[in-house]
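Course assignment 3, question 2. Fill in each field.
Student: A.L.
Task: Predict the tertiary structure for the chain below.
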Amino acid sequence: MTKHEHIQIRRLLAIVLICVTIFAGCSDNLHGDAVEHTPGEKIALNQNTAPELHYFSKTYSYDEAELRTIVPWEDGYLLFSHTGSRPLDNSFTQEAPWDLLSNDYYYGAATAGNDLYTIRTISRGTHCVWKNDTIVCEIPGDYYCDYQILVDGDGVYTQWLWRLEPAHYNGEAIGLPTPPQEEQYRNLGFWTLAGQNYLVSVREHATEDIDRWILQDIRLFPLNKGELGEPIILEGFTESPYNLSTDGTYGYFMLKNELYRTDGRNVESIGDLNYYGVDLSCLQTITPLPDGRILVVDSNALTVLTPGKDEATQDTTTIRVALYPYDLHSFSKKAALYNREDGEHRLEIKVYETLADLNLALLSGEVDLLVSSDPHTLRRYAARGILQPLDELIPDVLRSGELFGGVVQAGTVEDAVYFLPTDIRLLAMALPASVLERYGGSFRDLEELQQCLDSLESQSFYQVQYRDVALNYFLWHGLPNWVDFEAGTCDFQAETFLWVLEHCNRYAKDFQSTQHSDDGIKPLFSPYFQLNDADSLSSLDLQYEIKGTATPAYSESMAADVFPFPIGKNSSLLLESDFVLAVTAGSPAEEACGDFLNWIFAEETHEDAMFFHRDPIDRGFSIYRDITDQYLKDAYSYLDTDRANALREEYLSLLENANRYVGSGADVWRVIKEEAQGYFAGDMTKEECARRIQERVSILLAEQG
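Answer field:
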């Protein structure tokens, strides 16, 4: 199996340099001498790279247990779920049934020689480290936390993962140096490099609203019987690695969807774990073995990676997948399932965060399959001949007549279908039904909508949300009316956009200014209401009920209804989806892409997802009309027949008629949000703000071609 050169070094390097420059003085021996460094040394990252490694994989499943981790034990392995363990032999097959715990739970495991170390609860808020059947120490925790365990002689290091908590040594907290004001340390876990144990911690700086933390650097604190040495400081990272682990020689870590290892001198890419069939949406632990194999546990399966090339996979076609503009766990689930089952093709995923990077990859012929949460960018690609019409790849799916017509229309450019989602949601606005009825169920234009909002007995919706978030809501609804992504033009000086700016300026100025209460009373107007499951429509009846009673909070009826944003061409609700799929024109893997699309769009795949939860659709509806209809029938079976049929028919009508996607386009979005701050702060008029947005977005669209 020859993998595509898949790493665009810019991100990988963030970590690559951990070691190419970090540990001066390492010998040429891969298992070199102890690391020599200057205490407090700051390492500036460069752009060196190391070769990637080659592995082949095999995946194992075990009943219905939700897996947690696996460790070497006796002559085989010990596999853990949250509530039990079972021994496996060297071929990773079952030797015994699950040995289930009675009251407590497993939250971590490790082995050292003939000793087994586990972390289990004994009461709420307290976990214990066990050595075989004896409690070693207590550590703080709660019912839902996982730990990394590092055994060092007679001492045990533990780190509570995913939380801002200290590491512990034999139950005693390890104190980090006090960070400067508005900064914090966050521990990632442990590494052992060339015989030296390290606590790996990131230093983060708070943004002005303390709502987001920016990575400053990563620090490796040498460990010695619970004491911290002077750290090695790694600068230049743009994001934190995760799922740290070690085999005593190498430190392993994840960055995005890729696994790497370092020996204190080089960083090597092991590759995209999705490619090997790992479901990254539920990745649990990575256990590297001294012989070079790597055991990867997700909630549903164990994947064993073995160094080398598997002759059985030499003829496998690699489908190079581009995710834009961020990683998508909902696609990860589907990719992992396909890679586990299909012997002829495998998906290899790379994430592109900027349109410039994606454009370069497309021009360089590095992408076969494009998976994006931004359908409008795909419309532009289709209009420029960058995408392949799906009519030629999945004709039976598109000609079946079984798909919602609006979904097919939403992915059509110049009479050809270029992209499709696997599942869909709807975006609407909501008002009390009695209010909406006075306007015939919808509004002719924004002026009529504003008149309605001004007439409501309560306008608390202005106080419970702040301007930035309100602007997000209206951009989701309206952006396609002001930007023609296909033609590369825009019109932000339209009266409709000026209305949005003025309307959003009525909301609270910032989060601290919003008014929240727990009386259960919902605002009478919701500018962003998702219809994402069968309960969404039926739950609208409770939107305006006083919490815990059957009394309306206002004089208007408790019942509510949805309506589209009354602007331009939007005469229906809008489609949302986690992602849409498209194939690049001229891809050498075109046939393989077609096979994958025929699998992911097969009715059987959608039935499994919707009804048997083999790959559950967590939010949304199948694009197949009959499958969604059956789902709604099952969901409403508890209601009387007339009510169930009315809800089902309303949903199907809404889904059938929705034929345009919500607004997206990350680069355009960013310009609008930046310039709107000046208007919200009173530094410019709405007309001046719109003019500045028009100028900047016009230039941006021209640059993007």
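Instructor remarks: Confidence is low (pLDDT under 50) at residues 1-35, 612-617. The chain is about 25% helix and 30% strand.
Grade: pending
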